[in-house]
Amino acid sequence: MGNSQGKPVVLTDEVNLNHFRLLRVVGKGAFGKVRIVERKDSGLTFALKYIRKDEVVRSESVRNIIRERRMLEHLNHPFLCNLRYSFQDVEYLYLVVDLMNGGDLRFHIQRKAFTEDAIRFWMAELACALRYIHSQGIVHRDVKPDNVLLDSEGHVHLADFNVASDFKPGKPLTSKSGTLAYLAPEVFRGTGYYSEVDWWSLGVTMYESVYGKRPFEGKTYDDLAESICAANPKYFITKPPVSMPCLHAMTSLIEKDRRKRIGGTGFDTFISHPFFQSINFEALERKQIPPIFIPSSEKTNFDATYDLEELLLEEAPLEARARKQKPRAELRTDATTREIREDELHRMIETMFEPFDYTLASYEVSAASAVAGTVPDEHEHLDTNQPISHSVPTSPDGSPPLSPNTIPTPFHAEESFPPLDELRAALPQTQTQTHIRPASSSKSFSRPIPPQRPMAATRQPSKGGGVQMVLDETGSWSNLADQTPPVPDVPTGDLHGKDIKGSGSMLGFLSRKKGRDRSPKPKEAGVIGKIGARHIIN
């Protein structure tokens, strides 16, 4: 028999990889992967983001990684993907965060069309997350469907602070950081911007959730940048139609003039918008309002190929990292300038990427204060060597910067964020309120929010599609549409059009799933249908 007795794990030691059981890989980033892990002592599951040190050093991204780590230490909110642990070994950096096994928003909107109720709920929770990080002096700069994660109950969580930055009134940011298709017009102009860029990106994310496509397109970098700066997206006539309040919310977020952009000029401008006015944001932030769409607990909500890649393509899968590693080689006396620089960056990582344990953390210091002075401001920018991608990205791809143009003096973001109850008191009360669970006794997030154990999904009846879009007292946009019935689905067949699923076929057993007897599939709450179910007419 082989030796199955390893060195016993001492769970009172400083947290390390041996404290976790390594489960399946669920994601892939620029420098590493994300996999599900389970804490050996408590049984709690988390997401482990592991990043190759040599890749970080080679790409000169050390400061970004350290900045992200220090920001996350001081951020703690129900709609963020909160940091739980951080540590490192010779080869990897590790960030252990809340597990969101509902998949990312990109995964879902690529497969299904969602109701306005579901989209409103997502955008409202994301708005609460943006309000919180902005009040902490942080601008995210990469809000997009890929970085919006759903938990098992259907709540959304903003993730990936890799290009986030601290900001101060009177000191605008200037670097073109983020994903090109989601950057606000003022980012391209080069004279500075503040946190209102996140509200623009939220609008682009909302547009993509509604229509299943982005508002701005271009075959080249310059074409796409020009389209974004023009800020004139097309709002389509669809069936079922998009309601006027939903349309107006999108146009108010994708607003070229940041002084008129809702959210960016104050959180009250967002919560008072007709599309969001029916939501009780105090109850929403306490998670007392049940989500509209609940991800399936019977299916995986991520790409299963990542797990196979780890097994087949990695020279040394992560399981081998838990064993004792050799220390990094000392710098040679005849080292080149490049080798000296890489050694400096490795030492910076070893010193500044500190271990973290959320059970011992204090969240009294703002994230911006923690980051300020630790790393240079505005060090990183978009990768100028990355080609323009015309497909839907699965990671924050970079793009070369545009030549700066002249713009007026930048509008300064507000310095303070009043409490939600004060904002709500100043707004007109509406008759319609979203269903609320019994009130919670606490509304403070000063203590760490404990990670939730996976819960079984509970189904809710469908709330149907969007509100009819009325143009005047008697008409609607749907009346302007072509009433020709849609083309029926073509039966599944081979390349020559022959049916291969008949009962007499060799592959006839594939014609249906066992045990369902062709019964209609129950409709999911918050879902109109498969992708394309909100049909674009014009």
Automatic annotation (TrEMBL):
It holds the Pfam family Pkinase. SUPFAM superfamilies: Protein kinase-like (PK-like). Keywords: ATP-binding, Kinase, Nucleotide-binding, Serine/threonine-protein kinase, Transferase. One of its GO terms (biological process) is G protein-coupled receptor signaling pathway. Residues 384-397, 431-445 have a biased composition (Polar residues). ATP binds at residue 53. Transmembrane segments: none annotated. Residues 379-404, 431-465, 481-526 are annotated as: Disordered. This is Protein kinase domain-containing protein. It comes from Exophiala sideris.
